[in-house]
Amino acid sequence: MYRVLIIDDEEPLREAIHILGDWEGLGVSEVREATDGKAGLELLRRERFDLVLVDMKMPELSGAELLQIAEQEFPDLLLIVISGYNDFEYTRQAIRSKVVDYLLKPVNRIDLNHALRKAVGVLEAKRKRESEFISRNITLNMSLPKLKEKMYLSIIDRSFKTQSNEAFLPLIGADGAASHFAVGLLRMLNLEKVRKERFHGDRDLLHFAVTNVMNENTDGQFESFSFASPKGEREFIAIFTMKGGYEADAAFLSLHHMKKAASTLKELFGIICAGGIGEPCSDSLSIAASYEQAKASLDTIDLLSLRGSLIAQGRAVNPVSRDNPSLTGRMPQIRSALEGGNVNHARSILSEFIRKCQETEGFTLGEADRTLQGFLLLLGEIAAQLGAMPPQIRSGKDSSLAPLGILSDFSSFEQFAGVLNDIFDRYAGEISRTVAGDRSSVLENIKAYIDNHYFEDIKISMFTEQYFLSREYLMKLFKGQYGYGIHEYVQKVRMDKAKALLRDPALKIQDISEMLGYKDKNYFSKAFRNYYDCSPSEFRLQLPGVEK
């Protein structure tokens, strides 16, 4: 049985490790905690532990300082380092020290237990006195792929600082002048279908399979390192590195490798891919420019002519300027039709847009992405203002199409059009039900409020905020139901009440003015005259029994 110590100043992280660790299955008998490096060191000096999980950034005594002390005082102690994504500088000591693994925050169950099993394996080997095994495995064995991925992403988003991270350059082959780099971007066009049918919905398993294929058939001369893009679940980034040779060779090998990977993914898993390759470069920081070229190449693939997998050659891309139809410009018409309950007319507007797109000279993947995102956003805004958001996405926690039961896969223009129509159907159905079912009760509530609060300062914004309706839509509904606009109806109620109150000779006109919500007697008189073509005083003179 083993004893474990967690040293971290963040209580939620300590608690998460407690919950996520498979302690019983790993043969761990006791898990203790220390709230900072200083307290942890004191505990290590008093008691024996087999394994320590230590955060690199802590008050009192940092993780890096603790590792240095541990090297001297506890040479047989196994350590697992925990660090944030932006803490490159804190990992240098971890590289120098004999850590078992390196975990990135936030810690998840799979990575944590993988690291713990690795540590337990080393402990078991030590107990069996397999010293040769220990000497090979107790050295740096942290999650180098994750660290490399972080480095590449920081280069791509142009936040990588060479001077402060020089120690890590050898990890990506950027410590020599003879290396060439190129970036490939591969998009899974039918990812959701494949994940569901071939991987039982397991995203991690799919990612593992794809990156394995993309990294296959490379050697020390030409290598591929790939990972899922954080900017889009469908996209995978591949960094190609070639030692020696010429840039033209790097370009050829990168394109060949991407095409072969796309072919293998189709053959093994039925995955349809589109991809782009950036131009090769000899400076590691130029990987950012190569990525941008790869992204541009991917985005400019013509969806109208796309048939199966396609990899676009990397080069500077100048998008062709075309006057393509705009769905955004048609949204006011679609909204008006939906508000009026005319779903078929709204659908015909969308169908006309789709037909126009098919008749253009080209419609790219990038245009398709922007159209889908814009349509989903604008249709969602309309639904929100009408109080008709589909129940599956009212929480707002998941912005994808999955909660709506829509597969966002499309590898052809016809499938893209199908996704647009599916989105429309989900929202239009909810809007239609809401407009038909809630309209009467909402209008009745507003009318009742005016009838009982006509003497107050009534503003339309009170109702738009309460019922999540747009001003224009609400005014249109109210007038259609009662024949008056809201302001007109407030005025009507006040004037009806004014006539009733004026019949009481005991009430002064000033009093009546205030009872109706008019603070100015003259303003009341003017409003009354405009409404009845006579002043309040003249109206009283016309009443039966009043002396002329």
- Top-tier CATH class of the largest domain: Alpha Beta
Alpha carbon gap, first and last residue: 110 Å
Oligomer: single chain
Describe the strand arrangement of the main beta sheet, using strand numbers.
2-1-3-4-5
Count of helices? 22
Write the CATH homologous superfamily of the largest domain: Reverse transcriptase/Diguanylate cyclase domain
CATH topology of the largest domain: Alpha-Beta Plaits
Largest sheet: 5 strands, parallel
Q: Which architecture of the largest domain does the CATH hierarchy give at level 2?
A: 2-Layer Sandwich
Structural Rg: 35 Å
Helix content: 40-55%
Measured by DSSP, the beta-strand proportion falls in: 5-15%
Rounded mean pLDDT is: 85
Write the layout of secondary structure elements.
Elements (H helix, E strand, L loop, with lengths): L1 E6 L3 H10 L2 H4 L1 E7 L2 H10 L4 E5 L7 H11 L4 E6 L8 H5 L2 E6 L4 H19 L3 H7 L6 H13 L22 E10 L2 H8 L4 H12 L7 E7 L6 E9 L3 H23 L3 E5 L9 H13 L10 E3 L18 H9 L3 H16 L6 H21 L27 H41 L6 H8 L3 H12 L3 H17 L6 H7 L5 H12 L3 H6 L7
Parallel strand pairs: 1-2, 1-3, 3-4, 4-5, 9-10
Antiparallel strand pairs: 6-8, 6-9, 7-8
List the main descriptive attributes of the protein structure presented here.
548 residues, alpha/beta, Rossmann fold, Alpha-Beta Plaits, five-stranded mixed beta sheet, 22 helices, elongated
